[in-house]
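> call design_seq(struct)
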């Protein structure tokens, strides 16, 4: 009932681990495989190792989850090893990459392709170090398009571009990456945010600012996916605030073909994948659906 295909690859269900969420080692991925995950995205890797930000890097309360991990990662060597290990599992693996320059994005794509992930996801929410003020690649159509071409020109693996909601109009960026050859889009990354400790008049995160994720961003993610679906013909991985089967159904109706689950894993534990799958099936049976393909885009009339 939940099995589906995405860019020609089979998924037992549409529930994907979002990038950066406890995505550290292949043993943990194996646990998620036993807990019903449909596919796995690695954390984002760069060519060189990155230390990330100093603690505190995470804060969580009723308003949402705020993080500024700072894209810490062990570099391309670790990425290749992780993907090769993860490929032994029976679920598709999406290798997430990022870089500070267009050329480095191309190089990352070339090198990670050696490990043969099922897909490459380019996280373009990171700043372009060559641009004045380090504006992120996802914030204008030209740089989003150039990164997409650079990644596509360096691999035969299907390329997913992950977009940021921190833009005036995500539709323009989505169209630009489609025209540059992206095979699919993931939306959304975290929303820019911050919190202040009022007792000491200081931002809570060491980096001052961070990304907001979790339940509160679900309506934002849903609208971004709905808008993108109306704009492009390539498939979408809808991500942001999904914690239940009904959320996942709603995201599919907005136009997502697969659904990313990130902060939900902190709320409901690794069991969340089996739980959401069961909740989706129950809802579909009750409402007379036999296949998730009938649900995808159903809210567009
Ligand atoms: C702790 C943490 C680390 C993250 N690291 C990454 C990352 O390395 N690369 C990336 O593309 N997105 C990263 N994200 C963003 C998530 O993949 C996802 O797009 C976002 O959190 C919205 O989904 P959610 O509300 O289900 O968490 C991270 C999110 C969190 C909470």
């Amino acid at each position: 009932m939940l099995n589906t295909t995405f860019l020609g690859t089979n998924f037992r269900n549409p529930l994907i681990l979002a990038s950066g969420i406890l995505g550290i080692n292949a043993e943990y991925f194996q646990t998620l495989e036993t807990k019903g995950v449909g596919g796995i995205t690695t954390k984002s890797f760069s060519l060189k190792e990155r230390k990330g930000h100093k603690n505190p890097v995470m804060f969580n309360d009723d308003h949402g989850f705020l993080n500024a991990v700072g894209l810490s990662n062990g570099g391309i060597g670790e990425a290749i090893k992780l993907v090769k290990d993860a490929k032994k599992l029976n679920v598709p693996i999406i290798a997430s990459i990022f870089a500070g320059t267009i050329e480095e994005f191309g190089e990352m794509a070339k090198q990670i392709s050696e490990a043969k992930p099922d897909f490459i996801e380019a996280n373009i929410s990171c700043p372009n170090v060559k641009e004045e003020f380090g504006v992120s690649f996802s914030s204008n159509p030209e740089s989003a398009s150039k990164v997409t071409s650079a990644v596509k020109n360096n691999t035969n693996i299907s390329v997913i571009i992950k977009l940021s909601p921190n833009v005036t109009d995500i539709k323009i960026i989505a169209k630009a990456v489609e025209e540059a050859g992206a095979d699919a889009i993931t939306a959304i990354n975290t929303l820019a945010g911050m919190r202040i400790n009022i007792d000491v008049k200081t931002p809570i995160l060491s980096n001052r600012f961070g990304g907001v994720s979790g339940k509160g961003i679900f309506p934002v993610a849903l609208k971004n996916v709905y808008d993108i679906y109306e704009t492009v013909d390539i498939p979408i991985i809808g991500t942001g605030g999904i914690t239940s089967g009904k959320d996942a159904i709603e995201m599919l109706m907005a136009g997502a073909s697969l659904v990313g689950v990130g902060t939900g894993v902190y709320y409901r534990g690794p069991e969340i994948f089996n739980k959401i799958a069961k909740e989706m099936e129950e809802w579909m049976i009750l409402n007379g659906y036999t296949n998730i393909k009938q649900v995808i885009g159903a809210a567009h009339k």
